[in-house]
Amino acid sequence: MRSDPAEYKLVSPGNLPAVLSLLAGEPAQWLPIAGGTDVMVLYSAGKLPNRKLINIWNILELRQIEVSPDRIRIGAACTYTALRRHDIVSREFPLLAMAASWTGGIANQNRGTLGGNIANASPAADSLPALLAYEAELTLISVRGERRVAYRNFHTGYKQTVLAADELIRDISLPRRFSGYLWYARKVGARNAQAISKVCLAALGQISDGTIRDVRLALGSVAPIPLRLNKTEHALTGKKIEPSLIDTARKMVVTEIQPIDDIRSTARYRAAVAGNLVAEFLERLATERKNA
Q1: Torsions phi, psi of 136, nearest 5?
Q2: What is the pTM of this model?
Q3: Which residues pair with 145 in a beta bridge?
Q4: C-alpha span between 154 and 158 (Å, rounded)
Q5: Is 136 helix (H, G, I), strand (E, B) or coil?
Q6: 170-210 pLDDT tens trace
Q7: What is the Cα–Cα distance from 172 to 131, expressed in whole angstroms?
Q8: Which class would CATH give 182-291?
Q9: Burial category of 59 from C-beta neighbours within 10 Å (exposed 0-12, middle 13-18, buried 19 and up)
Q10: What angle in degrees, to the nearest 10, is found between the helix axes of 267-291 and 243-256?
């Protein structure tokens, strides 16, 4: 069943105050759209519940990337193409740049936005594990003002978030302190792009004198929400990388995730792959120490 265009209303206010006023006047009735890559899939299938749409694509302040000495702020309507091409993002946040290259094909990257990927709240989204690893912070705005939310606290369940009905994601902020970390990103799926991941890992590690000083492990497609593996990270920090530690980490990963069987894969496969990816990352971290 396809949607009937006559049943939908699209407005394009062109400025943030007007957008926020509409959201406040009829909470949960208006759906903000930028690139529309997720929205159009639902629309084409006749499954888009919102009948009132607000175009925020042409609001320039939502599409800017601002760099300061200690942080980088990415506008919610910033596209994946813009992320891939940005010098600071590519150099200091390679996990995010890599995820941007995985998200659909070139056409989708030209239209798809980081804020849209976050708000859509799919646990299989490619960019979300990278945001967890980099300790991203979101700025949420409404006519009531603004509030900042640590990204790790944004998702509350499958397709559920703390975003209020009258709020909009304005920007995503990342601290500029990870340039000295070894990074590792893997997407396991039918293809790197234009395919939903079966398992996706974003990892950061810092090693000194053979000891893990800091490690960050974030997974997608293994639970109702994207996950930071806090228990596994804690068990690894302060330890030397040895075969026994890698084996322990592989087993711990399985206890922290909640994979499911679906059309793309099985829970058993996802659990095995997640553990193997973390093990591969630790082996690379150990190699980095030997080469240092």
Answers
A1: -65, 155
A2: 0.94
A3: 142
A4: 12
A5: coil
A6: 999 999 999 999 999 999 976 555 568 899 999 999 999 88
A7: 9
A8: alpha beta
A9: buried
A10: 140
